[in-house]
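Project standup — Tuesday

K.O.: blocked on the structure for the chain from last sprint. Re-posting the sequence here as requested.
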Amino acid sequence: MAVALSFGAGTACFAANAHIGTWKANTAKSKFAPGMGQTSTVKYAEKKEWLELTVDGVGEDGKKTHGVWTGKADGKAYKVTGNLAWDMMAYKMVDEWTYDIKAMKGAKMSWSGKSTVAKDGKTRMLHMSGTGPDGKKFNATIVYDKA
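H.V.: unblocked you, prediction finished:
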């Protein structure tokens, strides 16, 4: 599975965006969804008024996964390139620490979640729920450490 992305209300104040940077999954503290693989690294970067999210991991089949999302945190869905389990994502900024995220495959919702950076800026948690490629419902919590 891959994970992780979240952004919000317009592109206001990227300087105050606690998500910017590289995050490594802490597998010991995370609860991944069965049958969905695992994310290893997520990188949030500013690209002028756009946000770019790069997700790397390993699928349940053991093959590497990689995806890139470029969009605005305006709640609208933007395309994801690569081989993730979803092909569109929508980010909406709740505040400088939190994003609501929706991931879709085609026009169908794959998962939704909330990504929150701790106030000390050292950890990030992604709480997500949805339906996996196998059609089964899941809940997952992935904990990331700032790289």
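K.O.: great, moving the ticket to review. Confidence is low (pLDDT under 50) at residues 1-15. The chain is about 0% helix and 60% strand.
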